[in-house]
């Protein structure tokens, strides 16, 4: 059987994680898919900076969409554009796609999923929501009979790391942020993380998945962690509480309600003990009750793991028989 040929859009932190994981897990991927997996093409803005990659580097998306040998496209670009336009063209060209782009997918996910159905290809987006936690696949494929009543989650590893450092090391916000940047957990411009935009985008993706719609974005309260002081942290410690940056979504009287904000959690709350860069999601369901999933929420490999798991779902033996109609994640 011929190799599965992969195109990779972007070769930043996440893209490099995907490339590394595919290369180091060839035997495992062959066991799952029945084929070898080859990253054959890289779409990179500045190919001269990545001369060491083993494959063809291109700057024009048409090189990928017009190549019939490319089977699947991994997208690891930052921002809504050109990621959305690229994925749209890839789907229209009959390519399966997998994305980690939460901002783009929060805005365009519904359109891309519908487009994938029309063109009989699969789209994976588990990596858009909570790092290495397979929450999308969990809701889609495990919690089918259960109605999800409410979700409370820590969806951003950077803010969770900062709040943990402020408490454990008595650090000021600015010092904890600088430490997060030095460790690669926060970008040079950390606005998306510390102001709650990243968690907001992820929450909107979950809303679309759970309720098949999103609330009006202007109605969602979004408060970051920049105003949290050492005094706030200390006062919460006196009452055995911890400040966590919580994204919540639920339905009330037929309306979807959502918010992203710092919350003082008591010791018995399921998200109280989630520390460092970890993410966690607490799901309240009507049959099972409460379920909490925890996992790494920042860094290249957790995101790469989620993308590779989507890939395996698409190309597993079951999906190979059905991939002309199945849309995963």
From TrEMBL:
Residue intervals of the Homoserine dehydrogenase catalytic domain: 134-311
Protein family according to the UniProt entry: Belongs to the homoserine dehydrogenase family.
PROSITE patterns: HOMOSER_DHGENASE (PS01042)
The organism of origin for this protein: Virgibacillus tibetensis
UniProt lineage: Bacteria, Bacillati, Bacillota, Bacilli, Bacillales
A GO molecular-function descriptor: homoserine dehydrogenase activity
UniProt-listed Gene3D superfamilies: Dihydrodipicolinate Reductase, domain 2, NAD(P)-binding Rossmann-like Domain
Domain Aspartate/homoserine dehydrogenase NAD-binding: 10-125
Pathway the protein contributes to: Amino-acid biosynthesis; L-threonine biosynthesis; L-threonine from L-aspartate: step 3/5; Amino-acid biosynthesis; L-methionine biosynthesis via de novo pathway; L-homoserine from L-aspartate: step 3/3
Catalytic reactions on record: L-homoserine + NADP(+) = L-aspartate 4-semialdehyde + NADPH + H(+)
UniProt keyword NADP present: yes
EC number(s) per entry: 1.1.1.3
Protein name: Homoserine dehydrogenase
SUPFAM superfamilies to which the protein is assigned, alphabetical: Glyceraldehyde-3-phosphate dehydrogenase-like, C-terminal domain, NAD(P)-binding Rossmann-fold domains
Pfam families named in the record: Homoserine_dh, NAD_binding_3
UniProt keyword Oxidoreductase present: yes
Annotated keywords: Amino-acid biosynthesis, Methionine biosynthesis, NADP, Oxidoreductase, Threonine biosynthesis
InterPro entries named among the record's database cross-references: Asp/hSer_DH_NAD-bd, HDH_cat, HDH_CS, HDH_short, NAD(P)-bd_dom_sf
């Amino acid at each position: 059987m011929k190799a599965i040929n992969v195109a990779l859009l972007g070769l930043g932190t996440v893209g490099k994680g995907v490339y590394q994981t595919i290369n180091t897990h060839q035997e495992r991927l062959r066991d799952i898919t029945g084929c070898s997996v080859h990253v054959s093409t890289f779409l990179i803005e500045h190919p001269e900076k990545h001369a060491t990659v083993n494959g063809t580097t291109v700057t024009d998306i048409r090189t990928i969409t017009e190549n019939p040998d490319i089977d699947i496209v991994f997208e690891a670009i930052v921002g809504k554009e050109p990621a959305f336009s690229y994925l749209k063209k890839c789907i229209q060209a009959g390519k399966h796609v997998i994305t980690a782009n939460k901002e783009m997918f929060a805005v365009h996910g519904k359109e891309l999923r519908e487009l994938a159905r029309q063109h009989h290809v699969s789209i994976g987006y588990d990596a858009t929501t909570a790092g290495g936690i397979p929450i999308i696949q969990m809701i889609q494929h495990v919690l089918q009979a259960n109605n999800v009543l409410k979700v409370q989650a820590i969806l951003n590893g950077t803010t969770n790391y900062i709040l943990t450092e402020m408490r454990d090391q008595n650090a000021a916000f600015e010092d904890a942020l600088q430490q997060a940047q030095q460790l690669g957990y926060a970008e040079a411009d950390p606005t998306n993380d510390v102001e709650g935009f990243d968690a907001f985008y992820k929450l909107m993706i979950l809303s679309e998945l759970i309720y098949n719609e999103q609330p009006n974005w202007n109605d969602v309260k979004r408060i970051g962690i920049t105003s949290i002081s050492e005094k706030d942290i200390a006062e919460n410690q006196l009452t055995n509480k911890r400040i966590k940056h919580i994204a919540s979504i639920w339905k009330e009287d037929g309306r979807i309600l959502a918010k992203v904000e710092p919350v003082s959690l008591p010791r018995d709350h399921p998200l109280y003990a989630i520390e460092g860069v970890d993410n966690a999601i607490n799901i309240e369901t009507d049959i099972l009750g409460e379920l909490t999933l925890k996992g790494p929420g920042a860094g290249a490999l957790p995101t790469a793991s989620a993308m590779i798991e989507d890939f395996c779902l698409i190309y597993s033996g079951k999906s190979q028989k059905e991939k002309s109609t199945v849309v995963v994640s």
